[in-house]
Write a structure and sequence with these properties.
Bound molecules: S-adenosyl-L-homocysteine, magnesium ion
Distance between the termini: 40 Å
Oligomer: single chain
Number of helices: 7
Radius of gyration: 16 Å
Mean pLDDT: 93
Order of helices and strands: HHEHEEEHEHEHEHEE
Structural class: alpha/beta
Low-confidence stretches: 220-225
Strand order of the largest sheet: 5-2-1-6-7-9-8
Helix content: 25-40%
Number of strands: 9
Strand content: 15-25%
Length: about 220
């Protein structure tokens, strides 16, 4: 990773340790842009986008950043990961979008990093392009994690990359849903193999599929209630 990009990513606000961020950038740099653009679910203030964005720029492709910017359960007032200055005082709900935009602007990545603002589970069924890389770092509750797996992973192109954050096989290290609802099902499906692990970040590659039912054409489901 270019040192200038790395300094900006490390200084950005968010939840991505430096070694895992570097592994995320590496996954982006290794992804084949001819397979499609990249997409992340769960952007918050833009930290992970500052790791993947430079890879998208260097590949002359786009990184789509899906987030409703209203925060996950654990970001709400009274929860462990709440940051009070992200609350929009006029409407009384969280809004990380202005912070995301400023972070991406300051890094000079606006041409390559595109915000998609809304509920990921509602957007996924309407998504049309195969992805060279999908990064899942959205809601970490059981149901949000399950929906991200079910609705987004079929969009990964054969030969493409699935990166999952906050995978904790040992419950003592953190919450279980990304491990139980995304990582394990991806491996059990037979459609993905693990290619690297750094901290809680797991990089998987999608295999050529013998079973045609696992494809984005089948993700014709209605938005989450
Ligand atoms: N990748 C970020 C951290 C993401 S935190 C970083 O590097 O710092 C998780 C994010 O997921 C939050 O911003 C939250 O708003 C978003 N999120 C949670 N559930 C979501 C959903 N169903 N649809 C869209 N975004 C969601
Ligand atoms: Mg995370």
């Amino acid at each position: 990773m270019h040192p200038d990009d790395r300094v900006l990513a490390e200084a950005a606000r968010g939840f991505m340790p430096g070694d895992e961020g570097l592994a995320l950038w590496q996954a982006g740099a290794d992804a084949d842009p001819s397979l499609g653009p990249m997409l992340e679910v769960g952007s918050y203030c833009g930290k992970s986008a500052l790791y993947l964005g430079p890879a998208a720029r260097d590949h002359r492709t786009l990184l789509f950043c899906v987030d409703h910017h209203r925060g996950s359960e654990e970001n709400q007032p009274g929860w462990e990961w709440h940051e009070p200055d992200l609350l929009d005082p006029e409407v009384g709900v969280m809004d990380s979008l202005p912070f995301f935009r400023r972070t991406v602007f300051d890094a000079g990545l606006e041409p390559w990093v595109v915000a998609v603002v809304g509920d990921g589970a509602g957007i996924a069924p309407h998504w049309g392009s195969p992805l060279s890389l999908l990064f899942i770092d959205g809601g970490h509750g059981r149901e949000p994690a399950r929906l991200d797996y079910e609705r987004w992973t079929p969009h990964v192109a054969v030969g493409g990359t699935l990166v999952i954050h906050d995978v904790f096989p040992d419950p003592a290290d953190g919450g279980r849903p990304p491990y139980e609802e995304i990582y394990l099902p991806a491996l059990a499906s037979g459609h993905f193999v693990e290619t690297s692990a750094t901290g809680s970040l797991r990089v998987l590659t999608r295999l050529a599929s013998p079973s045609p039912e696992f494809s984005s054409a089948q993700v014709g489901v209605s938005p989450q209630e």
